[in-house]
User: What shape does this take?
Amino acid sequence: QKEVEQNSGPLSVPEGAIASLNCTYSDRGSQSFFWYRQYSGKSPELIMSIYSNGDKEDGRFTAQLNKASQYVSLLIRDSQPSDSATYLCATHSGNTPLVFGKGTRLSVIA
Amino acid sequence: KAGVTQTPRYLIKTRGQQVTLSCSPISGHRSVSWYQQTPGQGLQFLFEYFSETQRNKGNFPGRFSGRQFSNSRSEMNVSTLELGDSALYLCASSLYSGDREQYFGPGTRLTVT
Assistant: This one.
């Protein structure tokens, strides 16, 4: 059973701080990794994808992938109250469907 | 470019009834995946369609079925509804089968009473 694990939170950070969200996965064959943001009552929104080891930056977001440790993280710099949401990690291998973690709830305190 | 659309947005059904949900993907996207989201189980994959063919299927009973039309629009059907089918049903589109950069629609909130 392929699994993606995330700390459910809530993770509380003050406004302006760096929020660090972590995800581990069980399938060593996992190839692609995605971070989705889901506001309460809304559908998931794709915010980052990462395919190779290392860091990938997009605005205030940085995704970090370490395949040897089977670990992927999302850093949010200068966190804003509008970043308060549940963040879902997802991965897949081959032509298998995406497997999602249950998400980490982030709360940014003004 | 318009996003993924799903209809209806909300639905209330009674146990034993059946329901059909519809999804129109982003223009140019040919793959449609369906997910069920519940607070306890999170996002769970139902099935994926590409070129009118089911490409992947999740671990759900046969009461859950789907299809895709030549214009890439997709429907899913749930027969003999159970209370446990109450969930948010999400459709996601991508360019092709195997493309896992998926974009979600707003979802259909199904309540079974």
